[in-house]
Design goal:
alpha+beta, five-stranded antiparallel β-sheet, three-stranded antiparallel β-sheet, rod-shaped
C-alpha cells in the first residue's frame, strides 16, 4: 500500500507540474521573450530611422539642385536677351545691359540677388545656393556656375 501511495503522490506531482507549465509562462521565459522583442523592435526602428534620415537628406539635395537649376535658367535667359556684358563684370558679379536697363547678378549672404535698375529681388533663399561664379571666355560668351550646375551662354542680341 505504501508503494501505491508513493506512486499516486508522484503522479499527482507530475500532473501539477504539467498543469503549471500549461497555465502560463515562467518569469524567466517572460523576461527572455521581452528582451528578444525589445532587441528586435529596436533594430527595426533603427533601420527605419536611418532610411528616413537618408531620404530626408536626398530630398533636401534635390530641392537645392532644383533651385540652382531655376536660378541658372533665369540668369541664362537674361544673358541671351542682353545687348552687352558691362565692363564692371567680374567672377563674382555679372552686369548686363538689357534694352535700356542694367541687370546684375551677385551672391549676397548665400542668396542670389538680381538687381534691375533700382529694384532688387532674390532668386533663392539663404543657403539654397553656395556658389555663383561667372567666367568670360570671349566677348559674348559667359560661363555661369550655380551650385553644381555649369552653363555656357552666348549673347544673342
Amino acid at each position: 500500500m505504501g508503494s501505491e501511495a508513493a506512486a499516486a503522490a508522484n503522479l499527482h506531482l507530475a500532473e501539477q507540474a504539467r498543469m503549471k507549465r500549461e497555465n502560463g509562462l515562467t518569469l524567466v521565459e517572460l523576461i527572455i521573450a521581452l528582451t528578444l522583442f525589445t532587441v528586435l523592435a529596436g533594430s527595426v526602428f533603427y533601420a527605419f530611422g536611418s532610411e528616413l534620415r537618408l531620404w530626408r537628406k536626398i530630398a533636401e539635395k534635390c530641392q537645392r539642385e532644383q533651385v540652382a537649376n531655376l536660378a541658372a535658367e533665369r540668369i541664362c535667359h537674361d544673358i541671351r536677351a542682353a545687348s552687352e556684358i558691362l565692363a564692371a563684370s567680374a567672377s563674382e558679379e555679372l552686369q548686363l545691359r538689357v534694352g535700356s536697363e542694367n541687370i546684375s547678378y551677385r551672391l549676397v549672404n548665400y542668396k542670389i540677388r538680381r538687381q534691375k535698375g533700382s529694384s532688387i529681388a532674390y532668386l533663392t533663399n539663404e543657403r539654397e545656393v553656395e556658389k555663383l561664379i561667372f567666367s568670360y571666355s570671349s566677348g559674348n560668351l559667359v560661363e555661369v556656375t550655380v551650385g553644381d550646375f555649369c552653363s555656357r551662354v552666348e549673347i544673342r542680341n
